[in-house]
Amino acid sequence: MKTAHMDPSAGQNWSCHSCGECCRNHLLITVSPEEKQRIEQQNWTAADGVNPLGLIVSGLGRHRLGHQVDGACVFLDSSARCRIHSKFGEAAKPLACRLYPLVIHPAGNEWKVGLRFSCPSATDNRGRPLAEQGAALQKLAKEVLPEGWKQSPPPPVAEASGLGWPDFLRFTRWLDHTLAAPEIPVSLKLVQALDWLNRVERGCLDQIAGEGAEEILDALVASAAEKTTGLPADIEKPSPIGRLFLRLLVLEHARSVTVADQDVRSASRWKTLAAAFRLARSRGRTPALREGLKRVEFADIEKPFGPIPPGAEALLTRYFRVKVQSLHFCGRAFHGRPLIEGFRNLALLYPVILWLARWLAVSDGRSALSESDVVRAVRLADHSYSYSPYMSWRTRLLHQRNDIVRLCRWYAQ
Ligand code: SF4
Questions:
Q1: Which one of 52, 69, 177, 405 is separated from 151 by 20 to 30 angstroms, measured CA to CA?
Q2: What distance in angstroms lies between residue 23's CA and the mean position of ligand 1's atoms?
Q3: Considering only CA atoms, which residue is closest to atom 7 of ligand 1?
Q4: Which residue stretches of the chain have pLDDT < 50?
């Protein structure tokens, strides 16, 4: 098996620091029949601090780990440790728990590895460089990759399939190149990437292959960089529809989604509906959504916030580069969508993150962003990225109205 490709240039580190966040905030941890059997054979009793009858929930031929009343994993103990890990070692845990927050995606003869930034160690870039963890990743990849993974074709770049992996990966390399540009704000790099992808689509260049493709993409990327050298002094305001969808996307990414929240009897379902109504209306005050996101005036979030702190720019660059390098934005990693559409949707996370960061700042009585607001916003936004239902038409509509570009620019100021 060819080793993972994790470009060390993104500078991503990660090791688990046992904070227990993932065990508190995840909705469904699916277990295989073998894992179910293994857990049952571990003979858990009430003396271990668990309800032995609520360890696994089964239905429709599938099994998942049970939850405590607050939504935390049934095996999480009061010191944020996994009871299976403490008693039987890491290898005894279900694969989903051993894998998180890593993501592994096939790419022809190799595979790509990325991270969920809902893990605090990933956002804080703490631990060993990911590019140096080949042996452990290799072991996980053997368990994760589906049979026949080398035969899976890449997703289309635009609409039509046809490219082989090497030609498809050329597009992601150029995307990463655009995002890696030093000392350029992330909003501008996203706008440049969106610009040259539009030209690929409009010029029907999604099937370009071989050496000639390298030259064409080089020229398109250079021209996008020349054309978009800074944020215009007079930034075009996003349309009311663009801003409405942005606020609903914020809700989609920031609401709490534990099993406790999904219970039909749970007050939080009604709270989410009420929050959707308030966010859609955007008059007066926001709803109080969760810890840190208080009731504040919409107008205070919508005021210009000034420049984004340099540390936050660095985090956002790393975030978008890891997503692109690991293909965590298109194909099998993102609802089977083509590269260009997947990237447009990924770019929408930029205004989502900044809107959330502003909401956190205003909730804290401030009118300028701190680096920590953006860190917290990235964690929230990435939590449900690629899990929550995706509406392809919404991304297309926002693109047709040029609202993706307008939103990226508007919330960068
Ligand atoms: S959230 Fe990250 S650091 Fe915390 S326990 Fe889970 S994997 Fe480890």
A1: 177
A2: 8
A3: 16
A4: none
